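Section 5.1 Outputs to date
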Amino acid sequence: MSKEIQRNPTRSVRVGSAMIGREHDIPVQTMTATHTQEIEETLSQIADMLGAGADIVRVACDNKKDARALAEIRKETDANLVVDLQENYRLVTEVAPSVDKVRYNPGHLYHVEKNKPVRDKVAFIASVAGENDCALRVGVNCGSVDPAYKEKYPDDGIEAMVRCAVDHCAYLDDIDFTRYVVSLKDSEPEKVVRANRLFAEERPDVPLHLGVTEAGLPPDGIIKTRIAFDQLITVGIGDTIRVSLTLPNDRKAEEVEAGHKIIEDIRAGRIRAVPEHWGEGLNIIACPSCSRVENMAFIDLAKEVTEMTAYANEHDLTIAVMGCRVNGPGETDDADLGLWCGPRTVNLKRKDEPLGAYTYDEVLGRLREELDKLIAAKA
């Protein structure tokens, strides 16, 4: 029997026809993986996602050509659309007329106009959002934390994320823009739990978008996500969710289905207990495919990496497989071994040290060599 989920006293934030906050059901979000300029393919994927129950759909938009395609997509769908500004915050003027919410990453604001105060950039984004009836998401990500906060909190990445999020809330509050939500994401469930609990203690009024970024292939990616969501939603933290899975384009709607299933289970009291030593051993993280992926062989590579490395399951190591050059370089820095994929080659790293670029056929062999070296060193 379903029961009411107790929620923190978060305010309501409208995203098109969807409502986020304590007074509303928890909307399930997802993101298209097609290239945005392939308009018909993107519309078809949006339709699949809506059919699976998506309440909000994010579309990637990296440049003005994408923005023009987004405008055409907007004409053909009633979906509640979100766009991510990535490195160029000024692109907000091009995309805001076509969407219902804009996500900006505080860790990317320094890329453009480096001498301009961050507060001014945030005010500009909020002004354009307000003029176009858009909500905002302040999206803080473990792999791209603002360098100023990393420098201030060198030994505690979670504190750096939380302090950054709290400060950006203050920037928006100071200009009377309160139509925003916050996300604090990491690829490790326990860090997602800690970050969101710390933030919610300080700002229980701000709606939280929950997600375990780069959760990887199902079923492991769903399990990682459940571990975080079970511990947060059951204590009132979380107002909208995204399940980020590494899936081919024709299966992306499974993210939505997984999200609804998790919420349904929590309502029914079907909570998964976390064993004491869960999470020890080999950890494979992989980003959800999106329109920035330049070679869809990345999906197969993620599977092959998982299969090939099974012999190392008992070792406490992390391997990251990232699908693009936008997030790949930074978000593999913390992994023991990282792979970020380009159109024809895969860049292999040990922590933040580049080890070379290899073809998709070559890289598995090189990865195994480096993995064996790490295992031998630990032994």
